[in-house]
Amino acid sequence: MPRSTRSIPRLLRTVRHLSSRQIIGQLRLRLRSLGGDRLAKWADKQTPEQMEPAWSPVTDFLPPPQASMDADAIRRGELTFLNQTYAIGSPLDWGTTQPPKLWQYNLHYMDYLWALPADGVRALVLDYIERHPPKQGNCGWEPYPLSLRLMNWCALLYGRDREQTLADHAEHAKISGCIRLMAAWLSQNLETHICANHLLENYLALAMTGNCFVSEAELPEGKTTYENELPVAWWLIGVEGLQNELGEQTLADGGHYERSPMYQSRLLCALLWVLNSARPKYREMLTPYAQRMANHLAAMTHPDGQIALFNDAAFGIYNTPGELFDFAERLGIEVDRKAVSRSAWLAESGYAVGGSDNAADHRFIMDAGELGPSYQPGHAHSDLLSFELSLFGKRLVVDAGNYDYVASDMRAYCRGVEGHNTIEINGQDQCELWSAFRVGRRAYPRKVAVDCDPSTGELSVSASHNGYDHLPGRPRHTRRATWHPEGVLLVEDRVDSAEEVDVVSRLRLGEGWTLRPVNVDHYELAQGGDVATIRLFGEAGWEVEDGWTCPHFYDKRPCRVLTLRARGSAVRCGFIIAAGTIDGAVPFESVELGGKTYAF
Questions:
Q1: What are the Cα distances from residue 537, in Å, to 66, 208, 540, 555?
Q2: Confidence class of residue 3 from pLDDT cuts 50, 70 and 90?
Q3: Is 455 exposed, middle or buried (0-12, 13-18, 19+ CB in 10 A)?
């Protein structure tokens, strides 16, 4: 079939979910691009007036992970983002296009400024102002990196290094004038064509910049137009936008609606930064959102202190959950830290979480929820009914993680069903994933039933999805899982179809575990004196295959994948995973461990 014939229906299946706001935003963006270098023309008409900081942050801002970068390497122009190092010269080549776009974005976020002393920060900022001016095609003036840079400049130059910045009147005038220019441009170019975390970051940046330069006396009462002095206008746009977007993007269980623990971490941190700078009245308004988001993040944290890797997620990009919780508590926000070990059903996000209150540190997290907002599933993966598992505080069953953000084979692998611990049918993905962030046909969970007993920690989940309904025979995958807090997991999978289909089930094993076969369907795993057991069931045999896991961006590590391949119209398979040595097991029914019987 010609490529164009395939692409048009796929494109229609993709764009039909767009919101009216996104469509209007896309049209506005394209119309604006017809007018030449609109940004440079706009900037030529602006007067970069000096502003004076007026805020009193509650506590020190939480530095980003890049605060630990090598300051000498930064001065040499050898910068490392996303585990990739590029030498871009000294002075820095702000317009470099050699690295991938996400690397370029990180250059313009300027998180690494936190690794420098005050004079080094100002030197780089002033160089940036001089050599990366507002001009179409200059990456740093795109709304998303602009938003993150605004927050860093405010927090550093008028927070941590306030005295040093204000000591030199000429430098302060240049810096605050550029901040004024950046915020004014951002306020007129909100990313409504994308929405989701991008738009929320825009509002967070405007609210924080307004907080920085608006005095208590200037704060308007009641409904006010945006025709005020610019800092007040930014503050108004930001606060009103946060009220609307947080109300939509923060689910009732505290999860961000894109269902990525990595972006949950980032947005929680940015919201805490705004709370740190906001006046008491507005802290009161925003605090409940931060508290719910922190508690949700706690539930999605493994015993190793790192996030679960569902959807687009990787380690090391944003602060760890523990760092975020410490920062929240310094702001007077109570965090339910016990959520990291408690069983729960996060109904709106669709995550079932099994915990263990004892010192063994077992954790089970399963995805039985929707991809994300229908109009923006760009960070979603084909991971319905997939799960992650930690035993003895160590990750035993892992996700493929996330390798990159470009349309590559590894991007497709990590997003696709092959990178997850669930069922693949006829070699197809659950969802129609294409390009780097596009999704055409989507899978939706069906018949989700969860029974969670927080007092005992026992959890049972049963769910199916319609991701393969388009295939001949309309095959339907149903998974039933039961978690016991002693570290015992029982899983049964069924695939029922009107026609025979090829079925693949996968279990991706974490690093550091020694895998020893007891027999063809019985494996023992050992690490550091801890022993776990996997019993596998199915009409066809399971095999050990090679796969990949990417816990960090551009960090591709080999892993072993226990794989079952079967064919039929009614395929039944499953496994039991337990912390310890299994004495006996009955397929899909029960397991004996340490003299105790565990069952569905």
A1: 46, 55, 8, 33
A2: very low
A3: exposed
d(CA 134, CA 180): 12
Nearest CA among 485, 482, 488 for reference residue 457: 485
Q: Give the separation between CA 291 and CA 298, rounded to whole angstroms.
A: 11
Dihedral of CA 12/258/508/406: which sign? positive
Gap between the Cα atoms of 424 and 505, Å rounded: 6
Q: Strands across the sheet with 590-593, in order?
A: 584-586, 590-593, 596-599
**Tokens at residue 323, please?**
């760092």
pLDDT digits (tens, 9 = 90+) for 139-190: 999 999 999 999 999 999 999 999 999 999 999 999 999 999 999 999 999 9
pTM of the entire structure?
0.95
pLDDT of residue 359: 62
Q: C-alpha distances in angstroms, 34 versus 37, 43, 136, 137, 194?
A: 9, 17, 12, 14, 20
Contact 593, 582 (CB under 8 A): yes
The answer to whether the CB of 444 falls within 8 A of the CB of 465 is yes
Which of 519-530 are b and which e, b meaning 16 or more Cβ less than 10 Å from the residue's Cβ?
A: eebbbbbebeeb
Place of tokens 């605090």: 287
Nearby residues of 122 by Cβ (< 8 Å), 6 or more positions away: 157, 161, 164, 165, 168, 171, 175
**How far is 447 from 53, CA to CA, in rounded Å?**
54
Q: What is the mean pLDDT of residues 404-430?
A: 97
Which amino acid is located at 158 in the chain? Y
Three-state DSSP class for residue 77: coil
Query: Residue 197: is its pLDDT beyond 60?
Result: yes
Residue 117, helix vs strand vs coil: coil
Cα–Cα distance between 549 and 410 in angstroms, integer? 10
Strands 351-354 and 344-346: antiparallel
The mean pLDDT of 8-22, rounded to a whole number, is 90
Q: What is the DSSP letter of 573?
A: E
Q: Give all domains of the chain, ordered by start, each with its CATH number.
A: 1-35 (no CATH), 37-249 (1.50.10.100), 344-599 (2.70.98.70)
Mean pLDDT of 127-132: 96
* DSSP 8-state assignment for residue 541: P
For β-strands 387-391 and 363-367, DSSP reports them as antiparallel
Calculate the CA 380 to chain-centre distance: 10
Cα-only R_g, the chain = 25
| Type of residue at 556 | K
Instruction: Say if CB 420 and CB 382 are below 8 A apart.
Output: yes
Q: Taking CA 134 as the corner, what is the angle to CA 129 and CA 136, rounded to the nearest 5 degrees?
A: 145
Q: What is the DSSP string of 87-145?
A: E-TTTT-TT--SS-HHHHHHHHH-GGGGGS-HHHHHHHHHHHHHHS-S-TT-GGGSHHH
Return the DSSP state at 505: E
Cis peptide before 231 (omega within 30 of 0): no
More confident residue, 217 or 387: 387
Cβ burial 293-313 (10 Å sphere, 16+ → b, else e): bbbbbbbbbbbeebbbbbbbb
Task: Say whether pLDDT at 597 is over 80.
Answer: yes
